[in-house]
Amino acid sequence: xxxxxxxxxxxxxxxxxxxxxxxxxxxxxxxxxxxxxxxxxxxxxxxxxxxxxxxxxxxxxxxxxxxxxxxxxxxxxxxxxxxxxxxxxxxxxxxxxxxxxxxxxxxxxxxxxxxxxxxxxxxxxxxxxxxxxxxxxxxxxxxxxxxxxxxxxxxxxxxxxxxxxxxxxxxxxxxxxxxxxxxxxxxxxxxxxxxxxxxxxxxxxxxxxxxxxxxxxxxxxxxxxxxxxxxxxxxxxxxxxxxxxxxxxxxxxxxxxxxxxxxxx
Length: 265
Fold this sequence. Notes:
This protein has two domains: 23-96, CATH 3.30.1330.30; 104-261, 3-Layer(aba) Sandwich (Alpha/beta knot). It is 32% helix and 21% strand. The chain has nine helices and ten strands.
């Protein structure tokens, strides 16, 4: 079943928020192509292209922008380096309205017609991790990501770059209180799974039904208050000397197990 995209053509993307009043810069060919595919002249304000760069991929991007009546600005490489803080921009960057967050109800609408599969991130701080998780979430059909409003990374240009366009397809809800949100999800029939050293081997996890997977902070794991709310916990067995995994790697392993146990659909 095709999923609706609550972020696409969402008028809320054009409205200023308390968190951001300035444009976000999205750079790199894949990320820019995806932004142009999902965006419109209302959300993308300008395309910056490196001067004297005339490769086929860049020409395709410029043609798409012109068809959407987006202003194209030829700039020297040094300006792109400055605007992207030395990022790997590959000669292209767009200035666009900040990414909008959706509501919990929007996430359920996104999962209309099937049991929802959500991922909850407990105070994740690294934008690289959030971008990678979004990319994997899109690959396995996760219906939405839930993040806290405070003390955690949000949707930024770095996240967009790392997600290689997945940020346009996976809706993200940002909530004030994760514990209360989890209680609300339980009231709506979801089973909440977290990670713990003494949890069930993730390879036996059956993620069928209405489920949410909680991924903890990079250094501290799931906070004690949230840990008490888990219906069950999972662990990833390891035989090496380093008994921990990067948050995005662990999330990817668990999301793919969820995807597999749900029938790969």
